[in-house]
């Protein structure tokens, strides 16, 4: 008998195939478990960051259910959160919207770690510059840090339009400059003048370690809420003009400020992107929806049916022509998918108004900040 060429019976061959398959599946399963654990380790976070910087667009993805979210309980952990964003404190009964996590298509985001954030920025100053959406993100970030490192001492101060949240043990300041147009609005004899080519307010931003800019939602204001009477371009005054054109001119003025005043070796610049609103249910395939009222779940998938607002294209066009590095936090599409994330009737005005512009905290701005965290660490 040739022992080197022994032939298995049909039953033996079947048994061997089953054993091989089981071993393969066990190996695959064990690899999956180890890989999942690895994702949670600091080594994996470094690997994820390399992937993000090299090949992964973190702004392309979808929302997935995550039982371990939200990252904090705003009502219990962060008493400084303003009523405008405190949806649970204002009586919102549903919690499902707080349990979603953004999952990029081709990589993983490291979970926010307030201790790591403070160590990375020890002795540095971060400033958000913009409107109430900047305040939304500023409050989100300060709450994320405080709830992550609850014993770290902090104080909050305000002078004029500048608010400062200081983590004194680390020498870290998270600041907010309320400046809704970025360019100047000046009171003159004829009234309030929006000067599209003047940016004297930029003196507050010079030489800071990190700047996160935002402007958009005030550009279409009319009537009593419009905070200017005239628009000035060069030496010419206009009672009004195409608002998108005005927005673009202001962005170019801001871009000129960045190129003239930012030293990339000392300062990192971000632009928040265009935070969307949800007042028209037709845009997300629900024409009978009463704005964002009663919305409890995000849209599935990765694409918003109504497309991106035109302001996004204008912003990206201007950013391309800025010579100094500016990173766009391209949060528009991922936020468009979150029709459920607004205060709605649980905001500042309660049931007398419907806020489908700002975001509940905990909520969507936490994802903006988690992406920011992944980009800077």
Automatic annotation (TrEMBL):
Mode of membrane association: Single-pass membrane protein
Keywords: Membrane, Signal, Signal-anchor, Transmembrane, Transmembrane helix
A GO molecular function held by the record: O-acetyltransferase activity
Domain Trichome birefringence-like C-terminal: 109-374
Domain Trichome birefringence-like N-terminal: 55-108
Main location: membrane
Gene Ontology cellular-component annotations: Golgi apparatus; membrane
Top-level taxon of the source organism: Eukaryota
Protein name as it appears in the record: Protein trichome birefringence-like 41
Organism, as annotated: Punica granatum
Gene: LOC116212779
